Amino acid sequence: MSMFVALLHSIVLAPDRRVIMEDLRALAKELGYREPRTLVSTGNLVFEADEMRPHELEVALEEAFEEKFGKHVDIIVRSDCTWMALCSTNPFKDGSGDQVIVRVMRLPVDPEKVEALKPLMSEGQRIAIVGGDVWIDFAGKPSQSKLLSALTTKRLGVGTMRNWNTVCGLAEMII
């Protein structure tokens, strides 16, 4: 048995309807996953499952999510070991926890695509690729940066963003 972290790209089903975390935990239980727990209301799920590859879990969760909620959502799954490795590689630990964000990628990001984002960066912002994921220190509110709106699936590939506070919170849940 292993522990996994699943990150939903979006929990918005319609402009006025979101998936509530109780329903996400119930979905995980229906799939036979044990001890499903969520962190904040933005689609962060920690659960235990038999030894499976993260990609197999992604497929199972995405199919079940679409069947239950009527909308496809990209879901990124990492094992507890790879999540802890991600936590140890934050290149911007000196940044503010709500301003440092990682875009956790399904497949390693193409460095050329990240290089193309650099003209959108403001003074003080930093960006790095570590282990195929994209780390950004926004050095201010991410919502006020031109860079945030460019961090899309169309531009970078399938992935989802979490701030450093959430990354650490998920790590605490799996220790």
From TrEMBL:
It holds the Pfam family DUF1697. InterPro entries: DUF1697. SUPFAM superfamilies: SP0830-like. This is DUF1697 domain-containing protein. It comes from Rhizobium vallis.
